[in-house]
Design a protein that fits this description.
elongated, 11 strands, single chain
Length: 405
């Protein structure tokens, strides 16, 4: 194996009888270099967006959320809430309630989600950090306030400084009403601020105080969910087991990933589909490598004949040219990886590729993961190996062709 590799190395670096072969070889290496760098950067951009969106979700969603397995709301007493908060690793517990409603502001109407939160909500989540305009005020005296998602604010045209015009929230009545009666229960709330997490929450949510929303929904102090903040070094499984033992069956306990599982799974699928499509360019580059190796085989016909006459087997001849293809692939991978790291550094430090105005970051987020390097290297070297098989077989049959000559 060492001998075949050494011969392959000499064939790659040594002088060819035709200078065009050298040019084609380096074109193949250049193609693999660009392809490798592109694959790594594509994955790193998806990683960057995934991390960015996860951090935005985490600022709106709790570390852990308890909801019913079936149904929308449940009763829970204050003593049980205190017992949950007393569990090791639990920092804060907030009761929340939410439902789909019709929002009306001046002449605009939109369907969205009204969410009621108690006084512990800002301790259970990072809602304070998401309020970009105005203030996080949900009640002041007898006046009910709300913070509005940036997308919902745009759709309704809400002025959060408007202390005169309230937002009317219409909720369908749960009991049967007559034909003439109003089928909606309507309460009003004043805007106090705008929050933004750059997700569907921006487009859907209006958040107000727990008592106001409970009255609107006529839930009689029911709760939609318990939202928990946990210590950074918490044992999630242990906390989950303690909560299950305390609350019994019929509840689902979701961590931060599970709360956005569907969205993150879709994003992960998009990431690997994009990678697969980009990998097709490597297949096109492989055709160039096949041609390059084929020309090297033809250029080394005399050498192949001599090697066989010296006792080298057909298998060893194949190994020489497969090693040749793998060397071309490895050189391209090494240079491509270095190029990707250089581009990564430039993007991180200077934000070369910017994002249009309106997004929370100015340039494309980017993040490298070790597993991505492994996948890209395996992909490129795998394609290089497959591209080497046909020329290697051609070289192994070369002796017969020489004798016939």
């Amino acid at each position: 194996m060492k001998l075949t590799f050494e011969i392959a190395r000499r064939y790659l670096l040594g002088k060819k009888s035709n200078n065009a072969i050298n040019i084609i070889t380096w074109i193949s290496i250049l193609g693999i270099t660009i392809g490798t760098a592109a694959l790594i950067l594509i994955l790193s951009v998806f990683n960057g967006f995934e991390s960015l969106l996860s951090s935005l979700f985490d600022s709106f969603n709790p570390d852990m959320k308890i909801v019913l397995d079936e149904g929308k709301s449940f009763y829970i007493d204050d003593e049980t809430v205190k017992q949950i908060k007393a569990i090791d690793g639990v920092v804060a517990v907030s009761k929340t309630i939410e439902e789909t409603a019709l929002f009306e502001y001046k002449d605009a109407q939109e369907v969205g989600t009204i969410k009621g939160v108690d006084s512990e909500y800002h301790n259970a989540t990072d809602i304070y950090t998401t309020v970009k305009r105005g203030d996080y005020i949900l009640k002041e005296g007898n006046i009910n306030y709300a913070v509005i998602g940036a997308g919902m604010r745009t759709k309704l045209g809400v002025n959060y400084n408007d202390v005169i015009t309230p937002i009317s929230i219409h909720m369908p009545l749960r009991k049967k009403v007559g034909l003439i009666s109003n089928p909606f229960k309507t309460l009003e709330v004043y805007p106090s601020g705008v929050f933004s997490v750059q997700s569907e929450a921006d487009l859907q949510y209006i958040i107000s105080n727990y008592e106001f929303v409970n009255k609107l929904l006529s839930y009689e102090n029911k709760t939609s969910a318990l939202e928990l903040r946990l210590q950074e070094d918490y044992d999630e499984d242990e906390i989950r087991s303690s909560i299950k033992a305390l609350m019994g069956p019929g509840y689902v306990i979701k961590n931060s990933y599970q709360q956005n599982e569907a969205y993150l799974k879709i994003m992960n699928i998009e990431k690997w589909v994009s990678y697969l499509i980009a990998s097709l360019t490597m297949v096109m580059i492989a055709f160039n490598m096949v041609g390059c190796l084929w020309m090297i085989v033809l250029d080394k016909r005399k050498d192949i004949s001599i090697l066989k006459s010296m006792g080298m087997t057909v298998r060893q001849i194949k190994e020489i040219f497969i090693a040749e293809g793998m060397l071309i692939g490895m050189v391209g991978v090494l240079i491509g990886t270095a190029l990707a790291l250089f581009m990564y550094f430039l993007q991180k430090q200077f934000g070369l590729v910017s994002i249009p105005d309106g997004f929370m970051v100015r340039s494309y987020p980017i993040e490298l993961k070790l597993i991505d390097f492994s996948v890209v290297i395996a992909t490129v070297l795998g394609i290089s190996y497959i591209a080497s098989i046909l020329p290697a077989r051609k070289a192994a049959r070369m002796e017969t062709q020489l004798r016939s000559d």
